[in-house]
Write a structure and sequence with these properties.
Helix content: 10-25%
Number of domains: 2
CATH topology of the largest domain: Immunoglobulin-like
Number of strands: 21
Distance between the termini: 84 Å
Radius of gyration: 22 Å
Strand content: 25-35%
Structural class: mainly beta
Bound molecules: copper (II) ion
CATH class of the largest domain: Mainly Beta
Number of helices: 5
Oligomer: single chain
Length: 375
Amino acid sequence: MLDRRTVMFAVPAAGALVAAVAACSRETINKDDGGSATDTNPDSLESVTVKLVAPPFVHAHDQVAKGAPKIVKFRMTTEPKTIVVDEAGTTFQAMTFNGSMPGPTMVVHQGDYVELTLVNPATSILPHNIDFHAATGALGGAGLTLINPGEQVTLRFKATRTGVFVYHCAPEGMVAWHVVAGMSGVLMVLPRAGLADPEGNRLTYDKVFTIGEFDLYVPKDAAGAFKTYPTVEDAYADTMEAMRGLVPTHIIFNGAHGALTGDNALKAKVGETVLFIHSQANRDTRPHLIGGHGDWVWETGKFANPPQRDLETWFVRGGSAGAALYTFRQPGLYVYLNHNLIEATLLGAAAHVQVEGKWNDILMKQISPPGPIRA
Ligand SMILES: [Cu+2]
C-alpha cells in the first residue's frame, strides 16, 4: 500500500516517515506539554463516540469537562460536491469533509484524545488526508492519514493545547487546491475548567456557531463568464491557473453567498451569549459584528492567552481560527461580516444574526425621526 502511494503521489519519504512516527509514538504518547491531568496510557481510558453535525452548528458538548480525560471518537467522510455559490447560479467543484464547507466542528477538552476515522469512499478519485493544527507530530497527522479511494484510516492524538484550531486536507502536491476547494474545518479544545476571563472568572456561552470563510477561485472563459465542470477533477487545471492570480472570485461563509443570511440567518435572543468561531484555512480575514462587539475575543483562537475585551473588529490569520464571545443586548438583524467591505458586499463574506427580544431605549433611541431641516 505504501509503495503504491509512493508511486501515485510522489512522496518518496512517506513510508519511512510513517514508520518513524509509529515507532516513536509509544515513547512520546504519555508526555504532556499542555498541562492536562493524565499520564495514563490512553488505551485504558474511557471512550465516547460523537456524531458530528454540519456547521454553523456544533455537536452538543460540556463546557466544563466531566470526569477524567477520554478518547473522543469522530468519523468523517470525504465528499466531492458540485455547489452553487452565488445568486447567479455559478457552480463550484468543491471537495468537502462530510459534505459541508467548512467540515464539522469537533469539540474535546484539553487532555482528551481525538480519535478520528477518516473515510475516502470508493467512488472518490482523489487521495485525501488531514492535518490537524491542534496535533503534535509530523505533518499534523497528514502523513499518517493519507488514504486512497476505497480506504479508511484512524488517527489518535492527544489534545495538549487549548483553543480553536483549523484542520485541513493536505495531500502532497495538492494542498492548496484541496484547501481552497473546501477541505477545512475546526477542532475546539476547551480548557477542562471551561473558558475564563483574564481574572479567571468563568465565561460561558449559550450557543456556538462556526463560520468558515473560504476564498474561491472559479475559472472564467475568454468572455469573462464563470466556467462549469462536470467533476472536481475536470476543474483542476483551470482552477490552479485561477489560483495563481491570487484574486478570489468569491469570498464566502459556509459554502455559498447566502448560506447564513435571510432564511438561513443565525438566531439568538437578547441576553444570550454566543461564541462565534471563525476559521479561514488559507487567507487573512477580519470579522466584525455590525451593531455589536466582541465582548471577549481570543483573536488568535488560543485559550491559554487572555482574551481581549470590547473589540470592534478582530483579525483572523489565514491558517487559523479565532473565537469571539458576545452577549446580545438589543434585538434586530445583525450583519456579521469580513470588514473588508468589498469582500463582504461584492464577494459574499457576510452572515446575518436575527436577534429577538425587547429594544432597550437606554442603549439607543431615535430622539427625532427624519424630517425637514430646521434652523
Ligand atoms: Cu483532500
